[in-house]
Amino acid sequence: MALIxxxxxxxxxxxxxxxxxxxxxxxQLERGSSLALTGESGSGKxxxxxxxxxxxxxxxxxxxxxxxxxxxxxxxxxSKLRRKFISVVFQQFNLIPSLTVQANIELHARIGDQFDIxxxxxxxxxxxxxxxxxxxxxxxxGGQQQRVAIARALAIKPALLLADEPTGNLDESISxxxxxxxxxxxxxxxxxxxxxxxxxxxxxxxxRQIHLKQGLISK
Amino acid sequence: xxxxxKHRLIWQSFRTIIxxxxxxxxxxxxxxxxxxxxxxxWSAVQAINSEARAxxxxxxxxxxxxxxxxxxxxxxxxQLADYVVLRRKGWDVSPVAQFNLPQTANISVILIDIxxxxxxxxxxxxxxxxxxxEPLVWANYITRNRLEALDLxxxxxxxxxxxxxxxxxxFSQAASLGLSTTPLxxxxxxxxxxxxxxxxxxxxxxxxxxxxxxSTDTGTLTESFHLNLTAFGFLSFVVGLFIVHSMINLxxxxxxxxxxxxxxxxxxxxxxxxxxxxxxxxxxLIAGGSGIGIGYVLASLLMPGVSGTLQGLYxxxxxxxxxxxxxxxxxxxxxxxxxxxxxxxxxxxxxxKLPILQSPALFARSQxxxxxxxxxxxxxxxxxxxxxxxxxxxxxxxxxxxFLGALMLGTALALPLILSKVISALTDRAQPxxxxxxxxxxxxxxxxxxxxxxxxxxxxxxxxxxxxxTSSFRLTLISWLEQRFTADLYVRLEGKSAPNxxxxxxxxxxxxxxxxxxxxxxxxxxLVSVYGLMDHPFYEENWPLxxxxxxxxxxxxxxxxxxxxxxxxxxxxxxxxxxLVTGHFSQPILGVYPDYGNTQFQMVMAQKQxxxxxxxxxxxxxxxxxxxxxxxxIINGLTENFGIHQTQxxxxxxxxxxxxxxxxxxxxxxxxxxxxxxSVAAFALLTxxxxxxxxxxxxxxxxxxxxxxxxxxxxxxxxxxLALGALxxxxxxxxxxxxxxxxxxxxxxxxxxxxxxxxxxxxxxxKVTCLSILAALLAALIPAGRLRSLAPSTLLKVFNNER
Lengths: 219, 803
Prior knowledge:
The complex is a heterodimer.
Chain A: E1 3-10, E2 22-29, E3 34-39, H1 45-52, E4 60-65, E5 68-69, H2 75-84, E6 86-89, H3 101-111, H4 117-126, H5 142-154, E7 160-164, H6 172-188, E8 192-196, H7 200-205, E9 208-213, E10 216-217
Parallel strand pairs in A: 3-8, 3-9, 6-7, 7-8
Antiparallel strand pairs in A: 1-2, 1-4, 4-5, 9-10
Helix pairs in contact in A: 3-5, 5-6
Chain B: H1 3-22, H2 25-61, E1 69-73, H3 80-88, E2 93-100, E3 108-112, H4 120-124, E4 137-139, H5 141-149, E5 157-158, E6 166-170, E7 186-189, H6 200-203, E8 207-210, H7 218-254, H8 256-264, H9 269-314, H10 326-352, H11 362-393, H12 397-429, H13 434-484, E9 489-492, H14 499-508, E10 512-523, E11 526-533, H15 537-542, E12 547-548, H16 552-557, E13 562-565, H17 566-572, E14 579-582, E15 585-593, E16 601-606, H18 607-612, E17 618-625, H19 631-642, E18 649-650, H20 652-666, H21 668-691, H22 693-705, H23 710-751, H24 762-788, H25 792-800
Parallel strand pairs in B: 3-6, 4-5, 11-16, 13-15
Antiparallel strand pairs in B: 1-7, 1-8, 2-3, 2-7, 4-6, 9-17, 9-18, 10-11, 10-17, 12-15, 13-16, 14-15
Helix pairs in contact in B: 1-9, 2-7, 2-9, 2-10, 2-21, 7-10, 7-13, 7-21, 9-10, 9-20, 11-12, 12-13, 12-23, 13-20, 13-21, 13-23, 13-24, 21-24, 22-25, 23-24
């Protein structure tokens, strides 16, 4: 099992156990499978994604990836986990504006010491970015930036790929195309895909889906 | 993680971080230029100080004359026989003769006896025997080159401590240089002497011992001048640091997203901080190197002025040429590294504490800014209080500078709060609509502009303070010159002039000749010049006093008291009514007179009183009241009868012109640094405006969309900047006046020994205020120009990116 969450609770300042943003969430996700997380705004979707991405720590419960429990890890070790095994595609892309498309795609792989020139080249081709390699993010459309973010995330062949509304800036046909491509790459490399979305159509294309409501899984 | 992996991770992070600058060349230039400018001003001052000190050391090292007493004869030149007599009677003395090298214009040869010379014998021939391999002729590089250029076959040993155009050699070499060995110039007296020796004037009547001047060492005299320069250099550096601080923190602020992304991608915080530290170090080295280069050029340009200042003010000779010296080069690099680390320390701390996910809410941010302003004002208040306590409890130059530092920094720290309150009040009073927007927008920008505005405040206040100080000084000096030097003619006597004959001749011509009798004494370790004045009403009418006893002049001419200069009054804390007691000498102080431009202690007494003392006296000059006799007749008569050269005459006008020329030269470098500091502040403001550019668009775009054309927005941009410049200048005026007061009443007294009356100079304040507004205008021109020609698509991007 790649990702396991057991009774995960997260509170922000001033929140009690009853009003916590996440209240005892448990779920599992295998490598090579995909899970869609849906829910209304403020239901805790992004918080859950951040916890799974080792970007934040939970207050109670435990989270582990391939047997490594997050709560036992130091900040340095969590950084290593993100560097080597976890990729996140953010809603706002979070590309580095001062780096070219190619440098952005290679960045995570180089930082994680997993740079594979052939794999990065292949990703660039499959995501249709070959002609844009020397451009800067500000010279790209929203959809193109999104594809660069996805390529960067997949460049390390992560154990866990998390995506926060990855198609929020794309039109419907391109959105479905991008999701299918992510699914395809995830299957190829036995990556676990955890995707947050508002779109039922996208959620339906993934292996499983769960709905979050007021900090609890409702289905 | 292996060491190699760590290095690779740091390198990748560093590359990513630094890539930001490829896309922000203007910001890169401003950071480098700001730090380079700060380093340049600091380095320039240090280079000047270093060069001047090296000159003093060279001068002091010349035969170590300053360290040894000398023996001369009161009426004749010394001969070798005198030396032999003293040596035979056990005196440890060494002969020194001085000649010009034949066939050269101004190369001096100093002949010494290296076996008996008090300092050279141990320093140059440790074995006590002259070296046979090295020539016994010493010169520095410049003199050596001159000898070569003159094609003179003189082999020299290198001695870099010697002054230019001076050769030192042993008496044994005199013949080979075509020189005689007599007459001797003087005999050097070793500090350690055998006990119970017969006194020298018993052995040879007429010999006298000249003690070294105790408190007139050039280095000590000019120390206060260099301290002033260093203070200015430091002020310029601090103003430069404001730019760097502003730029570095802005660059960190603008890269928050990048840092977060890197953290998300698994870069540990220590790697991020290390990479940023490397970036700062790289910047510091690039900017430091450039700054040293600029500083060298700047110092080379200012050096002749400083040389003139030191010559005019202290009679200190320093070379007008600058050398690249390791001490100030390294100090420049160190200050650049230290400065950038200091400027970036807070930013690095904030990055270290930067949460990966959170971004502060707008309200929380504005509250945070308010807290920073309040904290700054409180720290500023505490600094002002502590500075005042130091000023009131200590009475030293350092105490004065501490007060100045606390005053300037304290007010600068309080500035954001003061400006915020003023702009809030203006916003409240503004018409709803566009006026209210202009002021509220300005208030929103204030946080980003705080540092350059502080820099502008410091620069403008310094300008006002120094302008007021120099204007006050100039006015006082002119008035003093007019009062004190009212005689028709002054004659300086040289060489063999016979004062008695001259005085008789002048009296015969119908003029009044007032001889100035002079002597020297040492009081509390200070060399004091003593002048004897004739009993004549001229002095009472024209000798200004800043403090006096009643009936001061009649009592003075009766020989029942003395007058001292202001420097001596402050230095020894002696004022009218006090008694000056030294050895057998005890006299009441009748008055204290101003003596601008002099750093030595001085006292005047009635001539008859001076003659009664056992001090040797001579008459170096005459003050002549022409009594309607034609000046040219007197000058020609003195020239024809007594061989007095034209250069020895001085009239009131030329004296005044010369004194003012020295004065203007003295403040040349101060004014230059003032202008540079103001330029740096204007540059700081410009860089902030430019850096804020991308952050300004979201504020401007909605107003543009509501129908305000970009040309009008550009005008608002300029109006806003002018308003800021004017506000800062208005606040800077009182600060500048306090600064001027401190300079006049504390720093000058401690550094030079004279207090000056405060002369208000509103014209200079208006001038500096206009300069401040001009600086703000220049700083706003480029951003306003950009705004004016802004394409609608750029403004529309703001709406496209809104989420």
